[in-house]
Design goal:
about 0% strand; about 170 residues; Helicase, Ruva Protein, domain 3; mainly alpha
Length: about 170
C-alpha cells in the first residue's frame, strides 16, 4: 500500500510541475519602456514589404539592402515610434514619391483595371470555350450517325456507283 501511495505522490508532483512550468511559459515578459516606444524589426517590415525600393526595380523595401532602403526603413521606424499608423506612413511615401512605391496599387480609378483585367480575360475565355464546345456539339448532332442506304463509305451515292459498275460491265 505504501508503494502505491509513493507512486501516486510522484505522479502528482510531476503533473504539478508541468502545470507550473506551462503557466510560467505562457506569461509574457513585462514590457520595458525602451521596447514599448521603439518598433520591432517585424513591425517595420510589415510596412516595408508593402513598399518598393526607389532604386531597385521590383524589389520590396523589406528585403532590399541598398542604403536608400535602409534609410527608408529607419524613417518608417521613426514614424511608427512617433505614433504614426501604417496608413499614415504609406500615405506619406505615396505623397513624397508617387504611387509607384506601392507594392499593391490602390484599387480605384485607372488602377482598378489592374484588378479587373485578369477576371475579365478569364470570363471571356470561358465564354469562348463554351461557344466552341456548343458549336462542336451542334455539328456533331447534325451529322447522321448511321450511313444511309443511298451512300457508301466513300461518300458517293449508291445510284452513281451502280451506274459506274454497269458501265464497267458493258465495257468488259
Amino acid at each position: 500500500m505504501t508503494k502505491n501511495k509513493f507512486l501516486l505522490l510522484v505522479l502528482f508532483a510531476a503533473l504539478a510541475s508541468l502545470f507550473i512550468t506551462a503557466k510560467v511559459y505562457a506569461q509574457d515578459p513585462a514590457p520595458t519602456p525602451a521596447s514599448a516606444t521603439v518598433p520591432s524589426d517585424n513591425e517595420v517590415n510589415l510596412v516595408a514589404k508593402k513598399l518598393y525600393c526607389p532604386v531597385c526595380p521590383n524589389t520590396p523595401l523589406d528585403v532590399c539592402e541598398t542604403q536608400a532602403c535602409k534609410d527608408w526603413r529607419a524613417q518608417i521606424r521613426d514614424q511608427l515610434a512617433s505614433g504614426w499608423t501604417e496608413k499614415e506612413v504609406m500615405d506619406y511615401f505615396v505623397t513624397q514619391y508617387g504611387e509607384r512605391v506601392l507594392a499593391e496599387p490602390e484599387r480605384g480609378g485607372f488602377t482598378s483595371l489592374v484588378w479587373m483585367l485578369p477576371l475579365l480575360i478569364v470570363a471571356l475565355g470561358l465564354v469562348f470555350v463554351g461557344l466552341v464546345l456548343k458549336s462542336w456539339r451542334a455539328s456533331r448532332l447534325s451529322r447522321p450517325l448511321v450511313q444511309t442506304e443511298s451512300q457508301t463509305g466513300t461518300g458517293i451515292p449508291k445510284q452513281i456507283l451502280d451506274k459506274i459498275e454497269a458501265e464497267i460491265r458493258k465495257v468488259d
